[in-house]
Amino acid sequence: MTEIVMDQTPPILQGPSDKERKYDRQLRLWAASGQAALESANILLVNSGAGTVGVETLKNLILPGIGRFVIHDNALVDEADLGVNFFLDDTCYGKPRAQCLASLLGELNPEVDGDWSPKTKNDSLGSLLKQSPLFTAIMYTYPINHVELETLEQYSKEHKTPLIAIHSTGFYSYFTFRLPGTFPIVDTHPDETATTDLRLLSPWPELVEFANTMTKDIDSLDNFEHGHLPYVVILLHYLNKWKATHNGTYPSTYKEKMEFRQLVRDAARTDNPEGGEENFDEAAAAVLKTVAPFSLPSGLKEVFEYEHKDPIQERSTFWIIADAVKAFYTKHGSLPLPGNVPDMKAQSKVYVQLQNIYKAKARKDAAEVLQTAQAIAGTGREMDPAEVDLFCKNAAFVKLINVEGGGDTAPLGNKERLQQVLRQEMANDQVAEMTLQPMSLFPIYLALRGLAHCGNASSDKTQIVEAVQSLLSDNLSSEEYGDLNEKLGNVAEDLARAEYGELHNISALTGGMVAQEMIKIITKQYIPIDNTCVFDGIRSRTQVFHV
Amino acid sequence: MSSPEVLPDSEAKRWKYLNNVRTRPGAFVDPEEFDGSTVVENMDKIKIFGAGGLGCEILKNLALSGFKDISVIDMDTIDISNLNRQFLFRHADVGKFKAEVAAKFVERRVKGVKITPYNCKIQDFDEDFYQQFQIVVCGLDSIEARRWINATLVNMANCENPDSMKPLIDGGTEGFKGQARVILPTMGSCIECQLDMHAPRAAVPLCTLASIPRQPEHCIEWAHVIAWDKEKPFPQLDKDDPEHITWLYQKALERAKEFNISGVTYSLTQGVVKNIIPAIAATNSVIAAACCNEALKIASSCAPFLGTPGEGEPNYMMYSGNDSIYTYTFKHEQKEDCPVCGMTARVLKVNPTWTLEELIESFATLPEAQLKKPSVRAEGKTLYMQLPPNLEEQTRPNLEKTLEQLGLTEGTELAVTDPAFVGVVFNFSLKFA
């Protein structure tokens, strides 16, 4: 019996490799392409203070397999480190903290290269940056000294490197992503239910013919055939019927859609054991979502309307493809068809045929976009069909992060911008108070900025509040300050007890979020925050701000 | 083996950052009600236990939060696919027990902490065992296990004995999403009250698998459920055996070819058969830390915690990280008719012409019951018992009778038990449709 079975079971040749097995759970999120991007990433951490939050972030990047990391940390390991940082032990006393961290973090994943700095008195952050291979992203934690911060900002400007600031003290934390320019994401991984684009209101000839063939004698179909009509076909058939009795128009008002839905429901046969037909239930359930006129999604609109500063030759392939899709849209009044069809009750053969009709149209549209893109790019640049396909499939969900310029928005990070956000948040709070919604976490962000401004562990509540006031400058009215000071005062008081120290849980949580965001930026999948996330460990809440 | 005693002076230096916060009231706790001088001593004595896939993160976090007496329960052994996030384990540890390896690692790394591992299921222990703990932190990977520990703790809770009320902190993740919640047994919403937050996934209808497959998943499920049963290539399906998965994969591939369906891969086969949920270190970090943060606040009282009893006080945090970062922290209300912690019976809509068998089968898919092997009694009379075998045989004839025939009327109260939840009685009140 065993022998027979051995003959029948093919060898596990096409089974996964060790690496694929190790990374299986994450490959299901970002696939081999995302993994390849991670494995090419070179990450620098400039560590300081209690030194934990950046290390917890690195842990969550090393485990999934980034290519390389470097830790720059001027501290020597002391007793207090052992009560907060998991990646140090008591053999590390007095040693360079960077060295011990690199070693214990390195154990997490033998496939990742690690290094540390400064190794000698002559090594500085500046010399590290000069000698090291280009960094994919750099993160630093507070209390970083301002000379090193300036060095990082210089490097980031020169090499267009994403810079991530992280601050974790007591029960509070925030982190900010400074990206080198407008950052487009194509592979946003929208919810499955959102991605259905069936084009029922603008079917193309092949789809029309298919549906007509299946439904031309719909009433004389036997129960099996009738009960296995794909709902796409059912809706197309009844939309035609509606058009014929409504002057060639489709249902548009809510009332009309309800009427149409009832029309479809009434068409189901009930003289059977189930008392109805599942495919007709599916059709009725799909009416509101699919009988809807097309409108250009806001994310894509922003892409189409983006004002470039660089000439075409310097733009990334994303923008070239975007231009080609824009041309497609201008010409046809619709986007390239994504081509997926949701599952539905149908005979296998029929379903596959329907799927192929959608796939064929999608391929045709993508081919047209590719041709246009190639024409825009010119002869010097080869456009990648796979990249065009990805864009076409995801066109409705494309997103721009960190859009530069843009109307009256003050430059990120400066006083005017802080005041703008603060005013907006205080206004939101007034509404929130009345509607029993949670309050803004912006005072936490300000308090942490204020603490960093003070720069030392003995900062008390008053000093932190004064530092925030100087950050915001004098343009706020005393009434506005009054409003802010109460909320700010509580946060500052709670912060002060921590004496600039980190709580492990808060740093571990923040490290999880920062790593997640870095993975999105590196893999260019899923939608990153834009651009600052604050965590309130008292109430267990986060909030994202654009500062 | 415990690590060498750390000198008190260096203890103070070592735990400086933690003590600065946990021994001071901060801005949100009334300083009159807070005694910082006893916090460290109290927390040193607390027995806390953690379990589940978030275990590595939970152990690390609890050890660095000042807990000194930690127990960990896990029946699993280490698999290579754990290594991308369960960071206390290395390649060389594959095959060993998780609880043991994790406990040893953290004890060595964080001196002064005692960690007691148990290589078994949480269900292998009874109330007497759990009585010793003050706080329970769970990162389990099944709803059943969660419901079990919840029912156990709620059953133990007696408001006349404060020591019997043990906070249950529960966390779970799926890809970029997760939740952390705090349950104070009997004092607020419990896991059973919150069952509607985890709707069971609809199974693919048998007729789709058998005759009209359309998706690669249908072909795989067909191989898993129908072909395997028919051909029995191995005596017992082992979902972790690559040879078994390969067999299913090839069978699914053949079927897909027959119906012209594309997309069957080894990875998808594994995913469907094992119901694999994607998982990464980052999300696990967030959720485990959120849970342990609450444990620290509960143990020290140094700040308000999730699950504080009271009007409008949140007890549940939902986290989502795939599209920007969102948390939704809210209060899930206790249900009066919760079968585990509620006072009243839950209304069950039934048809009096149903047979007892049909009623019993419906308990499995009912979202507010989800009981797979229920035994039923009605107002003192035994209707059907799954166990023991002689009682099952005796009550079997009742299965064919209709509810009407059995004398059940509108308002009859049913007492339902299930071997997965020893000691819990699910009370339902019949409402005839």
TrEMBL record, chain A:
UniProt protein name: NEDD8-activating enzyme E1 regulatory subunit
Function field: Regulatory subunit of the dimeric UBA3-ULA1 E1 enzyme.
Pathway: Protein modification; protein neddylation
Domain THIF-type NAD/FAD binding fold: 23-543
Organism: Neurospora intermedia
Coiled coil recorded as keyword: no
UniProt-listed CDD domains: APPBP1_RUB
UniProt keyword terms in alphabetical order: Ubl conjugation pathway
UniProt key word Membrane: no
Annotated signal sequence range: none
UniProtKB/TrEMBL annotation, chain B:
Domain E2 binding: 348-433
EC code(s) of this entry: 6.2.1.64
Pathway the protein takes part in: Protein modification; protein neddylation
Group of enzyme by EC: ligase
Entry keywords, A to Z: ATP-binding, Ligase, Nucleotide-binding, Ubl conjugation pathway
Catalysed reactions, semicolon-separated: ATP + [NEDD8 protein] + [E1 NEDD8-activating enzyme]-L-cysteine = AMP + diphosphate + [E1 NEDD8-activating enzyme]-S-[NEDD8 protein]-yl-L-cysteine
InterPro entries: E2-binding, ThiF/MoeB/HesA, ThiF_NAD_FAD-bd, Ub_act_enz_dom_a_sf, Uba3_N, Ubiquitin-activating_enz
Tagged with keyword DNA-binding: no
Keyword flag Ligase: yes
Family: Belongs to the ubiquitin-activating E1 family. UBA3 subfamily.
Task of the protein: Catalytic subunit of the dimeric E1 enzyme, which activates NEDD8.
Protein name per UniProt: NEDD8-activating enzyme E1 catalytic subunit
Organism: Neurospora intermedia
